[in-house]
Amino acid sequence: MTVHPAHTRLELGDLKVPVTRVALTNGETFDRYCTEGPGSQPEQGLPPRRDEWIEERGDTEAYEGRRTELLDNGKAAVRRGAARQEWQGERRLPRKGENITQMHYARKGIITKEMAYVAVRESCDPELVREEVAAGRAIIPNNVNHPESEPMIIGKRFLVKINANIGNSAVTSSIAEEVDKLTHAITWGADTVMDLSTGDDIHTTREWILRNSPVPIGTVPIYQALEKVNGEADKLTWEVFRDTVIEQAEQGVDYMTIHAGVLLRYVPLTANRVTGIVSRGGSIMAGWCLAHHQENFLYTHYDELCEIFKQYDVAFSLGDGLRPGSTADANDEAQLSELRTLAELTTRAWEHDVQVMVEGPGHVPLNLVKENVDLQQEWCHGAPFYTLGPLATDIAPGYDHITSAIGAATIAMHGTAMLCYVTPKEHLGLPDKDDVKTGVITYKLAAHAADIAKGHPGARDHDDALSRARFEFRWRDQFALSLDPVTAEAFHDETLPAEGAKTAHFCSMCGPKFCSMKISQDVRDRFGGNDGASPEEVEAGMMEKSKEFAAAGGRVYLPLAD
Amino acid sequence: MTVHPAHTRLELGDLKVPVTRVALTNGETFDRYCTEGPGSQPEQGLPPRRDEWIEERGDTEAYEGRRTELLDNGKAAVRRGAARQEWQGERRLPRKGENITQMHYARKGIITKEMAYVAVRESCDPELVREEVAAGRAIIPNNVNHPESEPMIIGKRFLVKINANIGNSAVTSSIAEEVDKLTHAITWGADTVMDLSTGDDIHTTREWILRNSPVPIGTVPIYQALEKVNGEADKLTWEVFRDTVIEQAEQGVDYMTIHAGVLLRYVPLTANRVTGIVSRGGSIMAGWCLAHHQENFLYTHYDELCEIFKQYDVAFSLGDGLRPGSTADANDEAQLSELRTLAELTTRAWEHDVQVMVEGPGHVPLNLVKENVDLQQEWCHGAPFYTLGPLATDIAPGYDHITSAIGAATIAMHGTAMLCYVTPKEHLGLPDKDDVKTGVITYKLAAHAADIAKGHPGARDHDDALSRARFEFRWRDQFALSLDPVTAEAFHDETLPAEGAKTAHFCSMCGPKFCSMKISQDVRDRFGGNDGASPEEVEAGMMEKSKEFAAAGGRVYLPLAD
């Protein structure tokens, strides 16, 4: 799936770091961060590129692994006596080691291939990558059992990243559709993808997604665990959950959302909210706590989870199960109490060298957005913040990719490291592949707006390249450089379909007869080199120029295009 | 054009102030600010509601206005020997007075009907309206020759307003299409509309728009003046411009963008920009200044303009002709120099009691947005700021309604009074009526996000009403309360078309078997009244509840919907 004819995926250096090279009509090129991967036949999956790096380290071994059970794919599979659309590609034995996290290596002063790769992608010093990972301020999610992934980093010193959620539910979708959504997401720029499937075939859907994904894959294991106990939260046990985590770690899930901060004593704090508990995982754990009147088993077994995660290098995404579901509930005691617990859990994971990011809201009015990231950064000692939007208002269902992009750009500007996209279907339905594209493009522009606002080195180069193309009427370059060249060109064609208009020195806003850009080019022609010129010189220059201008017939409009 | 069956337009009190009343399925109602007007037959136009208020004041008189000339409709009309689609409705003689601006009355301590009307619309004290208008911190744009308009106020103490641009160009559109865009804009919530026509039939198109518009209409008179001199900026004269301003004032234009701040000495400051001058009006005046090497005639004749404006109560929208057209050019010397001049012009207009708002950018990185409004408010003594976006990045043509909504919500939160919308077609083409709708809805949500962030009294009521409906699975109410009920319901239907799903206690995200909202309702049922309960009480309560819960079978999921 190629976005635009002027785009080429190149792999640079020994590490084969991908870039999207955009060829411009003026002979220049512009290189963009590339997430789409080398491409794959869904039935075969991607080559396990990182295998040799993992081999090299020699600290993992392949083992027989957990036996897949029918129930891993839900009751339907049990009824059927078989899973649907079994994975047809290569099957590798799972690997694990004693402690093989990137944080573990970083703290030992080792710069791994993954870190070096990331440094090239981010155009920064590998040592900066190592330092940030060692300090817990950044994570490189890449389970050894997902060797197809191209390493990327999540941390506030680096480019703001975006995640796209996909996944089926009890009422929709097929495996093929989900793989299609994955392809769409990475083609348009998703840095990670979460498989939030809740229906049947969860195990197999995830297998297809992992084997075809060049980006890290995240999950919420409690969703599958719930399916294994017939959707009855009170029947959940640590054993079922633990088994599910191992199942997913062996498949190669790179990070897992764990709602270990939903403590029994916090549940009543949500009782008087406008929208109570809106996190699915949060409400599952709240339901369990209520049913048993016991502390959340994810909290009480947290160290055992760390022991598992460090053997595969699975990163924690500490879920905010009590995040606000409406602007009314933002930054309340329930949300902040959980955040304090997530801070404690961050420190505990770091004791095992396990990588951690912390999830955030949700729905937050703009005046309270900065407080969210400030508190998270302070309490969680700079662990990467990963937020869902937040939505700046509740009144626009159908447009929540926009209400949330406003909050997302703002919170990222203040230090959030990754943004979970919201699609136009939020609150209304599950995204189809067009919604996935809209959500990804919307979040790419929000993340980029934050990179610019943060003064991230080189971030504005892309804007400047596009703006120059716009100013010089290089329409094709303007299209090629835009986040969505297809839509940009299609919109232009709606008003000016003629081929000539692609090179015309005017746009449909002013029409062929007059164009403001043209006039400012006249200005530039006259005063182009005036840096450092004294007012008198400029004055004299202008007097001179105005004579020439009059002599030339004072043309301030353009020849009609053919 | 009715947006939703549950919406009714009501007119409250003697002043007949309109509200949109939303009837909810739980018997409650919610009243929303209403911009759509009473509706009209385009050929007949709207009733001149404000005529009697104007009569009452007895300080204006009707007179034999300026004779319409063929050239008012452009060269095509001259060739044809007639205008196209002449206005067929009632023709009233224009009126004027000595000084009849709302600011003039406010400064005399008079609370006009317009001020009282606005106070009802804004649910505030009429005296607040008078004070803000007298101080120049707010304007009520309503030319006496546009008696069809329903008064509204633009100022930072009031609800953030949005403007929708319509208008034809040399390459597109018809009068009927433009009237259709007007209807679309006000139906979806535009507070004012600007007619930026630049092609043929400018005079007649504007007549149709004014006679059918319940919202204030703004224009950029230099566009029509340029047409009158064959598109050759150097041929422009004060006399042609003055004649055009009177023509438009007599038709009833409520505010006019005047690029009087583009001074000769500022033009060279744009020479080294990435995108030079992108404002059409700005470049026209720059072209004129260069051609004649004389000071901008709008600046040198500014007091004469004030004399005209105060006779009709036309408000200034001081144009930012040197606004940045790319993030690279934001907050540069060219932009800020012009702003200082706009501040001077604001004070000069106030000496004539003429109402003023000041236009702002444009393209501005998020970290520089606040500075824009802070400087404008400080330098222009609190005169209302009216910004175009600003766009927070340049890289997403086709999605600039979103890149700009991010900047718009941010700048409005910091005190911008009105936001000029940007449609998905920005930089690529002219908006069609669907783009107008998308632009309006996007800006409504951005303006509302700012109202909430500012803590505007009652602003969050709308969010809370919708969130409660969402939490209680009142799907129909969630649709009816949303900014775009049509799209919200359509998106819901894509996943769950069945009629039953409109009342089902689940959504397609989790499916029928499990729903987080349901669980939090369980929580609320158990701990509903726990305000002020001591931890011990809550603890005891929870223990109790968990027994009941277990006894009840620990159901945390939902009956399948039929």
Describe the structure.
2 copies of one chain form a homodimer. The first copy, chain A, is an alpha/beta fold and 562 residues long. The model of chain A is unreliable at 552-562 (pLDDT under 50). In chain A, helix 8 crosses helix 9 (238-251) and helix 17 (459-471) packs antiparallel against helix 18. The first copy, chain A, has a domain at 60-99 and 160-457: Radical SAM ThiC family, central domain (TIM Barrel, Alpha-Beta Barrel), CATH 3.20.20.540. The first copy, chain A, is globular and about 85 Å long. Chain A starts with 6 loop residues before the first strand and ends in an 11-residue tail after the last helix. Chain A has helices at 51-57, 75-80, 102-107, 113-121, 126-134, 175-188, 202-211, 221-228, 238-251, 280-292, 297-300, 302-312, 333-350, 366-379, 400-413, 433-453, 459-471, 475-481, 485-495, 516-527, 535-551, and strands spanning 7-12, 17-23, 29-33, 60-62, 95-97, 138-139, 154-155, 161-166, 192-195, 217-219, 255-258, 315-318, 356-360, 385-388, 418-420. In chain A, strands 8-9-10-11-12-13-14-15 form an 8-stranded parallel beta barrel, surrounded by 6 helices. A 3-stranded antiparallel β-sheet of chain A has the order 1-2-3. Chain A has a two-stranded antiparallel ribbon with strand order 4-5. Chain A contains 21 helices and 15 strands.
